[in-house]
């Protein structure tokens, strides 16, 4: 990190935080603080939605994902535009018409207070813990690669976010997210441009794509239907649409973003813009990862990208790691020779030579991967509490060691921006749900608006403090971190089931939905404790049980007179 | 919950119907899938 990098990083962060705080200084009343006075234009809504979804770990991991597994992860986003259209038709006009602050508030009008409180509580529990991890994950990567303590990186990320989110509320979150997205997009553009300039002499852009493609990194679409394959066209279109519907339709951190739109039209346009931009944006980020992969076919990569784990492994298993380093260097040289042969074959236009060169390169790559697998096993034994993989460190290590001064600072600013943007939206949503669905609903019906705003600010600080403290200790919790990640799948299915029942089953009433939700949650916990089902399937299970039990309960008890007031078709 | 005044369904800024914009978004998705598939096949 040079002086220019520090200047770019510091100026970007200070400008974003300062601008957001200044722009949100005139917010008045609870609606002004929690929903930016429902005044936002569609482009602010769109950038805010994108910035909320793009957390730093996604930003760090996505290029690493392409490096390790190719570009097929882009298919995960194919269902998102479909979900955006469905939400525009159903949820957006409904929430605007009811002028709700939270998605859960709608459930009281549709069902009853207990169903609203149950879903709001599930959200608070899940998102409160996830918020700590949103800070912890990038703080860990940054601390390892910059050599800073984890306390400094968590406090820096969390502290800045709490300051402007508590001060300016939703307006500050939206204003900062707009510029955070600009920094993220600029950084990715500059990183890609700089990457193409650092390719070795004689290796052009087309050559890099050819080499990357020969080793399976350009696999953007897989049409084979396979339930065991996580990313293919069909799982992306169907599973991805389901996941996006639950995330954008029922998670308050996203719902709140489009509730700040000044009209149904502006909120809809924000969601549709997200639907248009998201897939190409993810493609571009993955493409950067595939190009980093191509770069390391010609320039020797480290044996293990996480420098702290590599050092610990070298200390604990010195002889083995030294032997692996030698084997790694030899395998790289062999692979580089084959990669250059493929480039020459590509330029010659000789189809037979091209096919032969691809086969030779794949064989050399397989030998290189075998060395890497052995290194992974040694690192895992030497660092039992380690991450077990180094893909999260590939992109940032490449940036820090290879990219030119200035771009390094911009990319680091983008990582901080991504982390802060999603954390801010989470804190904003946690505070809003705590105040609207819990405090005002049960204790503060007669409390003045000014006091509710003060309480909202206090709760933003409280949730921020909780997230920072949780982030400080997350590393020491070992397997609990994985458990917290899985925790999301414990609740998402149940919450989605309640909302689907609310939207599309107008004859189902509050009692049936409430018992359906409890049954759904019990089924999820039971399946987790008693079976070996993968946690991703808990989403579908919870949702299905909620809908089935709610329908069954309604059939047995009968439907009371009159249909519910507000469904998606209303 | 706040009042339940009806919200006028404003027309979109381009075109007269929201259906046209929805079709554009879904059409763009179809085009992206096709282009990405061609891209993947070209460099396999």
Question: β content of chain B, as a range?
Answer: under 5%
State the shape of chain A: globular
Q: Provide mean pLDDT of chain A, rounded.
A: 88
The number of distinct helices of chain B, counting runs of at least 4 residues, comes to 1
Derived from helix and strand composition plus strand pairing, the structural class of chain A reads: mainly alpha
Terminal CA distance of chain A = 57 Å
What are the secondary-structure elements of chain A, in order, as H or E? HHHHHHHHHHHHHHHHHHHHHH
Q: Main interface pair?
A: A-B, 44 and 30 residues
What would CATH call the homologous superfamily of the largest domain in chain A? Sodium/glucose cotransporter
The largest sheet of chain A, given as strand count, sense and whether it forms a barrel, is: none
Query: Helical proportion of chain B?
Result: 55-70%
Give the low-pLDDT segments of chain B. 1-6
**What is the percent of helical residues of chain A?**
over 70%
Please summarize the sheet with the most strands of chain B. Answer: none
Give a structural overview.
- The complex is a heterodimer of chains A (570) and B (44).
- By secondary structure, chain A is an all-alpha fold.
- Chain A has two domains: 3-295 and 402-440 and 450-473, Sodium/glucose cotransporter (Up-down Bundle); 307-389.
- Helices cover 79% and strands 0% of the residues of chain A.
- Chain A is built from 22 helices and no strands.
- Chain A has helices at 3-23, 29-35, 42-53, 56-69, 79-89, 91-98, 103-110, 113-146, 150-197, 205-214, 233-250, 252-259, 264-298, 307-316, 318-348, 351-382, 391-402, 407-442, 449-474, 479-504, 510-530, 536-557.
- In chain A, helix 3 crosses helix 18 (407-442) and helix 8 packs antiparallel against helix 18 (407-442).
- The longest helix of chain A has 48 residues, at 150-197.
- By secondary structure, chain B is mainly α.
- Chain B has a domain at 15-44.
- Chain B is 57% helix and 0% strand.
- The chains are: A mainly alpha (570), B mainly alpha (44).
- Chains A and B meet through helix 5, helix 6, helix 7, helix 10 and helix 13 of A and helix 1 of B.
């Amino acid at each position: 990190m040079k002086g220019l990098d520090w200047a770019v990083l510091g100026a970007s962060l200070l400008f974003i935080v300062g601008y957001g705080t200044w722009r949100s200084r005139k917010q008045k009343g609870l609606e002004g603080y929690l929903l930016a006075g429902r005044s936002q234009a569609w482009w602010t809504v769109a950038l805010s939605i994108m910035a909320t979804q793009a957390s730093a770990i996604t930003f760090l991991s996505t290029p690493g994902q392409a490096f390790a597994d190719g570009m097929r992860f882009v298919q995960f986003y194919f269902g998102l535009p479909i979900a955006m259209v469905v939400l525009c038709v159903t949820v957006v006009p409904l929430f605007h018409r009811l002028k709700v602050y939270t998605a859960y508030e709608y459930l009281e009008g549709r069902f009853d207070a207990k169903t609203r409180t149950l879903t709001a509580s599930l959200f608070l529990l899940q998102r409160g813990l996830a918020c700590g991890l949103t800070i912890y994950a990038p703080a860990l990567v940054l601390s390892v690669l910059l050599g800073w303590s984890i306390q400094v990186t968590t406090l820096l990320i969390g502290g800045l976010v709490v300051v402007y989110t508590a001060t300016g509320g939703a307006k500050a979150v939206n204003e900062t997210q707009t510029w955070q997205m600009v920094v993220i997009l600029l950084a990715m553009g500059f990183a890609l441009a700089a990457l193409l300039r650092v390719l070795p002499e004689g290796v052009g852009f087309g050559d890099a794509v050819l080499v990357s493609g020969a080793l399976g990194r350009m696999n953007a679409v897989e049409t084979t239907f396979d339930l065991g394959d996580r990313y293919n066209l069909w799982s992306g279109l169907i599973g991805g649409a389901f996941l996006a519907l639950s995330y954008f339709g029922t998670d308050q951190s996203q719902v709140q973003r489009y509730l700040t739109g000044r009209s149904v039209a502006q909120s809809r346009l924000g969601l549709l813009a997200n639907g248009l931009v998201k897939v190409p944006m993810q493609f571009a980020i993955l493409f950067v990862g595939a190009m980093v992969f191509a770069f390391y076919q010609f320039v020797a990569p480290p044996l293990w990208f996480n420098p702290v784990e590599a050092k610990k492994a070298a200390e604990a298993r010195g002889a083995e790691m030294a032997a692996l380093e030698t084997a790694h260097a030899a395998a790289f040289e062999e692979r580089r020779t084959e990669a250059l042969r493929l480039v020459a074959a590509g330029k010659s236009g000789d189809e037979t030579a091209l096919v032969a060169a691809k086969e030779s390169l794949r064989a050399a790559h397989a030998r290189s991967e075998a060395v890497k697998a052995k290194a992974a096993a040694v690192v895992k034994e030497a660092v039992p509490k380690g991450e077990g993989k180094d893909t999260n460190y590939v992109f940032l290590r490449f940036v820090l060691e290879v990219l030119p001064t200035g771009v390094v600072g911009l990319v680091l600013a983008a990582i901080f921006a991504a982390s802060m943007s999603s954390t801010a939206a989470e804190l904003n949503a946690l505070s809003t749900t705590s105040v609207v669905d819990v405090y005002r609903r049960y204790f503060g019906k007669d409390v003045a608006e000014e006091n509710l705003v003060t309480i909202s600010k206090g709760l933003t600080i409280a949730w921020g403090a909780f997230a920072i403290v949780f982030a400080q200790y997350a590393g020491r919790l070992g397997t609990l971190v994985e458990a917290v990640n899985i925790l999301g799948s414990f609740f998402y299915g149940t919450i989605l089931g309640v909302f689907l029942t609310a939207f599309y089953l107008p004859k189902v009433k509050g009692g049936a939905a409430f018992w359906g939700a409890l049954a759904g949650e019990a089924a999820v916990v039971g399946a987790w404790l008693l079976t070996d089902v993968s946690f991703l399937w808990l989403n579908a299970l919870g949702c299905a049980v909620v809908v089935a039990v709610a329908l069954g309960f309604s059939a047995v008890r009968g439907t009371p007179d009159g249909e519910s007031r507000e469904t998606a078709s209303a | 919950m706040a009042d339940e005044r009806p919200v006028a369904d404003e027309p979109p800024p381009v075109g007269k119907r929201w259906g046209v914009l929805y079709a554009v978004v879904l059409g763009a998705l179809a085009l992206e899938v096709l282009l990405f598939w061609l891209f993947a096949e070209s460099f396999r």
